[in-house]
């Protein structure tokens, strides 16, 4: 089956620095792909290239089989996008904003505008000026405008940015419903990792412009377990890591302030005693839960810190 | 088609911007103010009005006047013929100047030769020196006549160079040399030969002077056309009209009916206007013939031609020729086509509309620039462009859609203002205006309904605003800042007005786009009102040149905008 989005060897160079470095991935039909990476990792740049907002240094982007560079109009027809915060016309009402974007497509009726408004739960505030909207409402209106033309793919860059926990939960529910009810594929980015949990089918981890890993949540969890399910958080992780490796002969991973390894509870106790004897300041220790945050740090840490 | 859809959406959006109310308010206030303060100068009625008890008395006055106008005319023809004769027989002023200079040089050589003689005679030296000084004085006198009377081309600076040189030379030669010894004389002679010689100080200027070329047969043709055919021959326009007048006069000799006297008065006015038109035409066409090889702006530096505008001469010539050829001698007819701040003999809705539009257009221009820049730079800085650029529209289509929206916006505003001004004008001044004589591009005369002039004015404003909109769009694409774009465009707008007033005499002014922004000035008569968007002076250009230049620049600006817009990332 044809991929909704196919990214091949995408590269973006700004002057001398490579913001996106030879990234390839694809989004399947009806799939939610999470794009995870720290600030400045290159998520937005990749998405801007996918949407044709920024020129591509090299590589190709296909949306429903259409090349974004050579066949822009047909390719972009299948995409609804939202880059960073939605930028709307403050002097127009919510309805006015939607109507403007709707009028750019052929045959989008008023009923469609009302429908997308009700999907995002803005029906009651449509006649208010957007200048009076809260951030959450703007975000939802931003998603609504991306849905007007029933796109096969939604590209959402940090759509939960600046929202409170409740707002994030609402957006996540909304996106899940969209895939379920309409089969829309979604490419969503975030640096807040909890956003991805219980939302994304697969997660692509991007760091320093490079795609490090693209796996399902389960695959990442398994891979993570191999690296170590126990941690100590210490003041001098490199020193502590070396001590543990030497004295107990186990493989460790270092990630931030955490030293990760596989050990039984008794061994962990011994390790703590040993570290204390060696005057290593210990902040906390225990079993790692399977939160995405830890996994992410683990993977990025492995990649960049461990020799 | 897609472009139009985008344009429509953009336009819709534009009209929902809050600033629209501000603009509408400004337009209404401006229109109200104009209605209150519009107070055009009416043209003065120069028709003759003889005050007599009866037709015979009026006729007598006319006979006297007729003789004086006719002699004035023959004087003109004589001077034209004399000048032509002189120029063609090497007795022109330039030849005379060259002769005087050669004579003076000869006189100096005589003096110098005297100094070198073996037998040195102080008296002979004095005589020769005095002879030289006399020649210098002759040249000075001649140069002083050049300011008012000229038959060759000399610029003011060339004239001043000559004048300054001879003045200094005159001072260097003492009038009284009684206390000079032979050695003193020789010293003076050597000084003059070394520092005041003509080959260094006079001939470079003299050799650069240009003789006026006049083809005698061409001149004869002009005289025949504007003097013989119209005034002199038995079947000339004037003679035929004279017969008409006499016929009428004999039918009412001695009548003191007001109506008869009025008719006779009008006929005399017409008679006079025929003569004046013919005279003006002869003068204009003769001047045009004299200066036909020199550009208008170059002429501006020349003594005797400083205030000449070839375009205007040609325009008047075309107008007069049309009036004479078509028997329209009525001064009212020739003067009824003035618009704007100067009206014809009477104000009408048309004058008012053009005047009001000149002011309303400024407001429209400012808002078009403001909204136009907002459509691109505003959306870039407000980042809404990001949301727009991911629609199925290529960048070119987005640009064109926005450009079209701007044009539509401007057209709607202009049209509304135009209709509103016209309605107000009709209420205040009525619609009573005869047809209008329009001189297009100085060479075509047509009689049109005044509404046609309004439409031409509107078209000219549209082109003018298109230039500024294109400029504002280009600047907003480049700088991505509405403020920079609007400010810069507005500065260009103001600078244009200033330059058209201040730089009109600069030779390279015609190469600037801003010299070509107003095409209304090429519709003679109609534009003689002056105004804010209308610059009357035309230097070395014509309708087609300006139109081509203007359209070319508009196209180039927009192509450049499209290229930059396409290349730019939308951050
Ligand atoms: N217009 C630009 N010019 C130069 N460098 C840029 C530009 N935009 C982004 N970058 C750089 O590219 C890198 C990736 O940025 P971005 O894609 O915005 O990261 P993310 O969205 O993952 O936070 C950053 O280091 C950023 O500094
Ligand atoms: Mg980003």
Major sheet strand order of chain B: 6-5-7
Stretches of chain B where pLDDT falls below 50 for ≥5 residues? 526-533
Find the count of extended strands of chain A (DSSP E, 2+ residues).
Answer: 14
Beta-strand residue fraction of chain B: under 5%
Structural class of chain B: mainly alpha
CATH architecture of the largest domain in chain A: 3-Layer(aba) Sandwich
Mean pLDDT of chain A, to the nearest integer, reads 86
Q: In which range does the helix fraction of chain A lie?
A: 25-40%
Describe the fold and architecture.
The complex is a heterodimer of chains A (307) and B (571). Chain A is of the alpha/beta class. Chain A has 2 domains: 5-217, Rossmann fold (3-Layer(aba) Sandwich), CATH 3.40.50; 229-287. Chain A contains 10 helices and 14 strands. In chain A, the strands form 3 sheets. In chain A, strands 6-7-8-3-9-10 form a 6-stranded mixed beta sheet, with helices on both faces. With 571 residues, chain B is mainly α. Chain B folds into 3 domains: 2-43 and 343-567, no CATH class; 55-83 and 214-334, no CATH class; 93-211. Chain B contains 21 helices and 7 strands. In chain B, strands 6-5-7 form a 3-stranded antiparallel beta sheet. In chain B, strand 5 and strand 6 (444-448) form a beta hairpin. In chain B, helix 18 packs across helix 21 (543-567). The longest helix of chain B has 35 residues, at 395-429. The two termini of chain B are 28 Å apart. Classes of the chains: A alpha/beta (307), B mainly alpha (571). At the A-B interface, helix 2, strand 6 and helix 3 of A face helix 1 and helix 17 of B.
């Amino acid at each position: 089956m044809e991929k909704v989005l196919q990214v091949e060897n995408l590269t973006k160079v700004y002057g001398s620095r490579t913001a996106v470095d030879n990234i390839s991935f694809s989004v399947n039909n009806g799939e939610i792909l999470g794009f995870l990476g720290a600030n400045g990792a290159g998520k937005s740049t990749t998405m801007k290239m996918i949407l044709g907002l920024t020129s591509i240094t090299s590589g190709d982007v296909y949306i429903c089989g259409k090349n974004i560079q050579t066949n822009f109009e047909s390719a972009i027809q299948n995409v609804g996008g939202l880059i960073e915060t939605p930028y709307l016309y403050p002097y127009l009402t919510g309805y006015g904003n939607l109507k403007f974007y709707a009028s750019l497509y052929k045959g989008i009726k008023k009923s469609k505008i009302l429908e997308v408004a009700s999907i995002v739960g803005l029906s009651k505030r449509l006649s208010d000026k957007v200048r009076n909207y809260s951030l959450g409402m703007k975000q939802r209106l931003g998603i609504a405008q991306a849905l007007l033309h029933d796109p096969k793919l939604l590209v959402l860059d940090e759509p939960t940015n600046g929202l409170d926990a409740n707002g994030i939960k609402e957006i996540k529910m909304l996106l899940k419903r969209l895939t379920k009810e309409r089969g829309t594929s979604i490419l969503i980015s975030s640096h807040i990792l909890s956003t991805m949990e219980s939302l994304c089918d697969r997660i692509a981890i991007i760091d320093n412009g490079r795609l490090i890993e693209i796996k399902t949540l389960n695959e990442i969890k398994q891979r993570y377990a191999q690296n170590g399910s126990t941690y100590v958080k210490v003041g001098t992780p490199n020193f502590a890591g070396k001590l543990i490796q030497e004295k107990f002969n186990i493989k460790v991973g270092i990630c931030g302030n955490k030293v990760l390894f596989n050990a039984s509870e008794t061994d962990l106790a011994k390790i703590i005693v040993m570290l204390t004897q060696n005057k290593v300041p210990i902040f906390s220790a225990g079993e790692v839960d399977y939160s995405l945050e830890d996994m992410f740090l683990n993977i990025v840490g492995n990649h960049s810190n461990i020799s | 088609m897609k472009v139009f859809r985008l344009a429509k959406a953009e336009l819709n959006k534009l009209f929902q911007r809050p600033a629209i109310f501000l603009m509408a308010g400004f337009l209404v206030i401006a229109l109200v103010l104009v209605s209150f303060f519009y107070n055009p100068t009416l043209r003065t009625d120069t028709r003759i009005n003889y005050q007599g008890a009866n037709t015979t008395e009026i006729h007598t006055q006319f006979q006297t006047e007729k003789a004086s106008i006719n002699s004035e005319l023959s004087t003109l023809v004589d001077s034209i013929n004399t000048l032509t004769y002189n120029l063609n027989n090497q007795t022109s002023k330039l030849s005379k100047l060259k002769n005087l200079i050669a004579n003076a040089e000869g006189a100096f050589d005589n003096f110098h030769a005297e100094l070198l003689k073996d037998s040195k005679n102080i008296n002979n030296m004095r005589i020769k020196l005095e002879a030289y000084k006399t020649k210098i004085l002759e040249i000075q006198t001649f140069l002083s006549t050049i300011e008012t009377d000229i038959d060759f081309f000399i610029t003011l600076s060339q004239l001043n160079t000559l004048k300054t040189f001879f003045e200094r030379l005159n001072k260097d030669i003492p009038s009284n040399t009684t206390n000079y010894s032979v050695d003193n004389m020789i010293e003076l002679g050597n000084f003059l030969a070394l520092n005041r010689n003509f080959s260094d100080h006079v001939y470079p200027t003299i050799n650069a002077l240009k003789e006026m070329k006049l083809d005698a047969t061409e001149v004869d043709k002009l005289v025949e056309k504007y003097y013989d055919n119209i005034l002199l021959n038995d079947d000339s326009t004037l003679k035929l009209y004279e017969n008409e007048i006499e016929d009428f006069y004999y039918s009412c000799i001695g009548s003191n009916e007001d109506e008869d006297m009025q008719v006779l008065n009008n006929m005399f006015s017409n008679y006079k206007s025929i003569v004046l038109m013919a005279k003006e035409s002869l003068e204009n066409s003769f001047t045009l013939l004299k200066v036909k090889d020199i550009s208008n702006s170059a002429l501006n530096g020349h003594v005797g031609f400083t205030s000449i505008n070839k375009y205007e001469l040609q325009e008047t010539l075309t107008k007069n020729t049309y009036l004479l050829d078509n028997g329209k001698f009525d001064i009212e007819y020739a003067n009824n086509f003035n618009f704007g701040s100067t009206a014809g003999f009477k104000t009408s809705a048309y004058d008012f509309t053009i005047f009001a539009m000149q002011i309303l257009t400024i407001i429209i221009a400012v808002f078009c620039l403001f909204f136009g820049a907002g459509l691109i730079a505003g959306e870039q800085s407000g980042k809404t462009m990001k949301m727009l650029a991911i629609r199925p529209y290529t960048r070119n289509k987005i640009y064109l859609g926005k450009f079209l929206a701007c044009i539509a916006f401007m057209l709607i505003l202009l049209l509304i203002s135009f209709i509103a001004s016209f309605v107000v004008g009709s209420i205040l001044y009525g619609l009573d205006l005869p047809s209008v004589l329009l001189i297009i591009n100085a060479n075509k005369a047509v009689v049109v309904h005044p509404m046609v002039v309004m439409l031409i004015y509107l078209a000219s404003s549209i082109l003018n605003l298109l230039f500024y909109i294109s400029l504002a769009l280009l600047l907003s694409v480049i700088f991505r800042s509405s403020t920079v774009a609007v400010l810069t465009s507005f500065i260009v707008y103001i600078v244009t007005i200033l330059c058209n007033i201040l730089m009109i005499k600069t030779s390279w002014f015609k190469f600037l786009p801003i010299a070509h922004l107003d095409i209304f000035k090429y519709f003679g008569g109609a534009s003689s009102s002056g105004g804010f968007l209308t610059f009357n002076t035309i230097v070395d250009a014509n309708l087609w040149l300006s139109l081509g230049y203007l359209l070319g620049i508009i196209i180039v600006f927009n192509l450049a905008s499209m290229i930059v817009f396409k290349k730019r990332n939308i951050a």
